[in-house]
Each structure stands twice: as C-alpha cells, then as structure tokens.
Amino acid sequence: GLGDMAVTNKQWEVAAKCYQYVVSAGAGSPWYSAARIGLVTAMDARVRDQADPPKDQLDALQKAYESTLDELGRTAANIKLISGLAQLEAYYLNDADGAEALLQQAIAMPGLDPQTQAQLKLDLGDIQVLQGDIWDASLLYSQVSLDFKQDVLGSDARLRNAKVSFYSGDFLWAKAQLDILKAGTSKLIAN
Predict the structure, then answer these.
(1) Residue 109 and residue 10: Cα distance in Å, rounded?
(2) C-alpha distances in angstroms, 12 versus 2, 36, 120, 146?
(3) How far is CA 143 from CA 119, 136, 137, 138, 139, in A?
(4) Is the CB of residue 1 less than 8 Å from the CB of residue 18?
(5) pTM (2 decimals)?
C-alpha cells in the first residue's frame, strides 16, 4: 500500500506513519502483522540508506526486529524479518556468530520453501566467508548449486563458490567453475 510506496521513494516518515496507523488499530486488525513487518522494514531501509549509520539507530533497529519477532513468532512466515536481523547482526553489529546461529535455525524451520531455504544457505555461506570459514561456506554453496542446477540460485551459488576458491588460492578450480558459469549463463538466457 501507501507505506510500501513511501519506502520505495525513501519517504521514511510517511512510511512510518502509514504503518503506525494500522498498528495502532490493534492486533485484531487484519493488516496488523503486515504493518508491524512494514514498520521494521522501513526502519531498516532508513538506517541502511546511511553511509555510516549511528550505533544508537542500529541498536534501536535490532530491538525493533527482536520485539516484532517475539510478538509475531519466529516462523517461516516471518523469514524475511529473521534474515534481515541476521544481516544486521553480521554486517553492522559485528555479531557474525549470532547471525550464523539465527540463519541455521531459520534453515531448519519446517514449512520453508526450497528457494527460500537455498537463499538462506547462500546468506549463511557469505557470513562464514566473512569469518574465514571458507570450507563450510563452500559446502553450503555446493549444496545450493546441486539442488538448483538449472536455476539462477544455482548459478549464483557457483559464482560464490568460484570466488571463494579464487581467494583461497585454488585458481584452477575457480577457472573451471567460471567456464561452467559462462556456458550455463547462455543456457539460462536461451530459456
């Protein structure tokens, strides 16, 4: 609705007012959950839009994620919030361990569609690379690559795996992966 358009146009105050209006109607409102999620999403977009977000805004955003997830539940339906919190922890709050644990719990959730689970594995792999756990990351990338051979997710996983191999010094393997990617890309475009 209007809140989503305001976020797209970086009109943070308008977005917050739209979502807050629906939230103030109470938990019985049919759009309450969506408005709570929208409020956190708008806050996240506003904070991350800054080159160097202040620590107090990052902490407030983390609290907003936590309280919203506590209220709405850490379920497959709220996976975007869980993923957003993990990204915040890993890349802004220097808590890669917390982000990793959060993503591992999310990946194991029942009722998660395979594409969402694969994207979470890619996100987890990126955080593992950040921590220097390149073999664990490579294993996750390989799983996604095998599970989604003919899909953009699989190509993305192969590219990430090639980058990890390149940076870890396995240049021949990385070149072989990039050659496969080049061939696969033309197939994806042809389809």
Answers:
(1) 33
(2) 12, 15, 27, 41
(3) 11, 11, 10, 9, 6
(4) yes
(5) 0.81
CA distances from 182 to 58, 71, 140, 188 (A): 39, 46, 21, 10
Burial 24-39 (b: 16+ CB within 10 A, else e): eeeeeeeebbbbbbbb
Tokens matching residue 189: 């475009």
Taking only the tens place, the pLDDT of each residue in 16-31 is 777 877 888 777 778 8
Q: State the amino acid at position 187 in one-letter form.
A: K
User: Max CA-CA distance within the chain?
Assistant: 60
Write down the residue that tokens 């061939």 correspond to.
183
By C-alpha distance, which of 115, 116, 51 is closest to 82? Answer: 116
